[in-house]
Design brief:
This protein is an all-alpha fold. It has six helices and no strands. About 65% of the residues lie in helices and about 0% in strands. The longest helix is centred in the first third of the chain and has 32 residues.
């Protein structure tokens, strides 16, 4: 969480994404949402293999016994991967990454953007430099609730794709997963 907030604040302070030679996003509100989306993509890329391992450990049948992180990682590494990637085992840790990144971009944009906008609104309306604990708790809870509600279907698809261990040909597409 700290890493995500650090990247978000760094992007807001430097304004690299919103004010550079390629494009210039006008408006303070739009820049907060775009910085939130990029922050979410960066953090998701680094944390996704850990999520895969966690999901596999949670969804293993009880007959498998007690499986630790190292054993689960070895199993994922040794799986036969997608033929598009020519059997490179590292890509096994990124199964379901596309819907995850599609879901994380709006989630992070909404959560971080609304949180920053709410905090700025509170500071401006109540003439304070630092909102107290309860206003920050309310702003954070509201922004997380809105973000979760908007991106819940993508989280379902991602979890099902992470837990799937069968052959690629028999795997249901994301659209079928969402309809079940």
């Amino acid at each position: 969480m700290r890493f995500r907030l650090y990247i978000f604040e760094l992007l807001n302070e430097t304004q690299y994404l919103t004010n550079n030679s390629l494009w210039n996003l006008k408006g303070d509100k739009l820049s907060k949402f775009s910085n939130g989306a990029v922050t979410g993509m960066m953090v998701q890329t680094f944390m996704y293999p850990v999520e895969i391992i966690k999901t596999r450990i949670m969804t293993l049948p009880s007959t498998s016994g007690n499986v630790g992180v190292v054993i689960a990682a070895k199993r994922i590494w040794n799986e036969r991967g997608n033929p598009r990637f020519k059997g490179v085992p590292i890509f096994n840790f990124y199964k379901g990454f596309t819907p995850a990144i599609i879901g994380v971009m709006p989630f992070a944009a909404l959560e971080l953007g609304f949180s920053k906008l709410g905090t700025d609104w509170y500071k401006e309306n109540y003439k304070t430099k630092c909102p107290g604990f309860y206003p920050l708790l309310g702003i954070g809870t509201t922004s997380s609730f809105v973000a979760m509600g908007a991106t819940y279907p993508f989280r379902l698809i991602t979890c099902q794709m992470q837990a799937y261990t069968g052959p690629e040909k028999e795997r249901l597409g994301p659209r079928c997963h969402a309809l079940r």
